[in-house]
Specification:
By secondary structure, this protein is α/β, with parallel strands linked by helices. 36% of the residues lie in helices and 19% in strands. A five-stranded mixed sheet has the order 1-3-2-4-5. Strand 7, helix 7 and strand 8 form a beta-alpha-beta unit. The longest helix is centred in the first third of the chain and has 19 residues. It is elongated. One of its GO terms (biological process) is protein folding. Pfam families: Thioredoxin (PF00085).
Amino acid sequence: MNFYILTAIFYLLNVICAEHEPEHTVQYTVDDFEEQIPKRNHFVMFYAPWCGHSQRLAPTWEQLAEMLNEEDGNVRIAKVDCMKDSKICTDQDITGYPTLKFFKIGESEGVKFRGTRDLPSLSNFINEQLGSESADETPEIPEPTGGLIELTEDTFYDHVATGKHFVKFYAPWCGHCQKLAPTWEGLAQSLEFEEGVSVCKIDCTQYRGVCNEFEVKGYPSLLWIEDGKKVDKYQGPRSHDDLKLYVNKMLGAKAESKDDTADESKDEAQGVVLILTGDNFEHGIQKGISFVKFFAPWCGHCKRLAPTWEELEVNKQLCKDQEVDGFPTIYLYKNGLKVSEYTGNRSLEDLVEFVTKHSDGHDEL
């Protein structure tokens, strides 16, 4: 019982002290929010008193207000209690606490802050929204180094606003990113004089806002962006040749692989291993004999070519369309039509015998 009494006393003392401490943050309610917001630039915290994240941010938010809330200041730091003034938060589509929004003067729609909630990050965000006072021109895009352009939050949006761009979203500590780095630099160098596309990279540990906006959830993420919008996410092998083929495909050029130069009859006789996806499956089986293994990375019997879980998700619909209900499933296709399912032993001799049996001149089942 003594513990609870002491807790109550401390709580009352904090309330009494808080009442005597000057508060620099402006508290808006339903009575004045809509009227005051358009009058000047505002950075507003929409919060819930019971929310732990809101409580942790409160001292930093007050510090920001103490720095910036002056009579002749360019921005006002404010807050709204979503428990007391729920209508404001509903109108502003607030679904989590705290949500931070910047409202430019004369506007009722705010820009959501998505970065780290520390004082330097919050201050930088305000400066970005207000624009540089020292210069009117936008930050210059850095010159490519060996064809590769390194972007920041200041230069990213202007650079990708027009044209086609192949962008690597990465984190310096990521092992896969480190492994890809020399290949990515080589790709940029090989495309240095290709005017149709720029090869770029951006560090997600420094510029989280950009990466969050493009829904980057893993590193590295390789996105094809056209005129400011994400068009595609590259999920294939990360060799220089594979990446180059992908760029050629996205540019609309005829992609030539090392197999394209080989004699067709030789390919048909000896066969090649191709990784099929939902995008290229029908084209891949359209001509000649195709022996296809449908597999899953988690399947103990599927021992080759372990792809990522994302690649499995991409081809889930394909497996469903082809009536695959177990892994691995091995189908033989001829001229685009499913001929047979292989259910025999998986030794090389048995597989070769099965394919030979269904090749030209041996169609009998």
